[in-house]
# Entry
Amino acid sequence: KNQVEQSPQSLIILEGKNCTLQCNYTVSPFSNLRWYKQDTGRGPVSLTIMTFSENTKSNGRYTATLDADTKQSSLHITASQLSDSASYICVVSGRGFKTIFGAGTRLFVKA
Amino acid sequence: DAGVTQSPTHLIKTRGQQVTLRCSPKSGHDTVSWYQQALGQGPQFIFQYYEEEERQRGNFPDRFSGHQFPNYSSELNVNALLLGDSALYLCASSGDRVDRRANTFGSGTRLTVV
# Structure
């Protein structure tokens, strides 16, 4: 069964701290993995996209890693800001247009 | 360059009614996908339209139907609304020449069924 599981469900950190979000998947055959940021009541915004051959991709303070062998990905946020408070969604696409969304990790950054 | 635009932004309907949601894709995109996102959950894929035809469908009943027009815009129709249909409905477009898979999402339509 194709699944995408994210952890933790929610996370509270202090402004300026770093954090890491996890994504495990069983989608096969694998095509690409994307991380999105979704503010409350808004549509998701793409942060990174990685294919099978890529194991790291950065976008400013966001760095995503991918281990296609263990089917795991992480999103690392450095020097967090209040505006980082949002849901972070891991999306895995298989070949043949199959796309599975994770339930997301809800991040709260406190001053 | 306009991104994906959805209308209306908010909508309140009564059980049993029908609703139509609209989506205009990002300029240069020819594929439109629709998603349902319940509160606190990730988006669930409803269906995808390309060349005015439904190309792929998720696990949603026939009450959910759609259409794509020659200008690539799309509509999502839901008949016989249930309370459980209350959700944020997201439209995403893709088909960029650089990366056909890259999705751009709209801000969504918040549907409340009472």
